[in-house]
Amino acid sequence: MLHREVVNACTTGKGSFQCKGTAVQAGKKSVNGVELCYQQTGAGDHALLLMPGALGSGVTDFGPQLKGLDKKRFTVVAFDPRGYGSSRPPIRDFPSDFFHRDAQDGLQLMQVLGFSRFSLLGWSDGGITALIAAALSPANVRKLVVWGSNAYVSQEDIAIYNSVRDVSRWSERMRSPMEVMYGAEYFRNTWSAWVDGISQFTHNPQGSICLELLPQISCPTLVVHGQKDPMVPSVHPQVLLQHIPNARLHVMADGKHNLHLRFAAEFNRLVEDFLLE
Ligand code: TYC
After folding, report:
1. Is residue 187 part of a domain?
2. What is the pLDDT of residue 112?
């Protein structure tokens, strides 16, 4: 699947493309003043919204989920947050409310697509977005799954962010897909802007991104964590567990940050079982 095909499918508004051998519909919808690109597959009663990580997009972050989640039981929607993937323009920026803005965009996109109740699956930054969306819109959110996510930033986190700020020091394997999607310059600049953006939260009490919202999350919540995640220290899932009233934790012993890609079959089964309970 080529980036160009996804862009074409999104732009024409009723395109379809193959993602890992499965047919996915793509389109654009006008949401909160921007055109958001989304991908959709499956015909089940239970609608899901997949929320990507920093600079991520539906197809780069969720290929194995678009392909592998049960299409009879679920209708799977993934989206490219504003300024990411094919939801450009606008150029991405990181005002202090950027996670709230993404949360409102995701919720509104599902309304526009005709889904009033759905579950949220959020990876990393997308998990932060999903936590906020679930707290602010409990009537719309059935269940919540987050992994590789944090509700606050510590000095340890800031040190990790700064150690990955310079994308020229990333491995070819990590950097290349991003450069294909964005071009080298947009990627470099936007990644650095993201590091500044997430660092803003250190000015809040306890470095909070959304700590104070966690007690408002009323839906059943599954927090997944990779024991070997080098990006997100394991205190973060513990804090989520402490503050979200109806949460449970599943640790994947060999999982790193991208556990849903590396161990896709195991992850998909875990999530399906939780959603179908
Ligand atoms: N939050 C990032 C994402 O959404 C991942 C990340 C975590 C990046 C920690 C850097 O130091 C970092 N994919």
Report:
1. no
2. 98
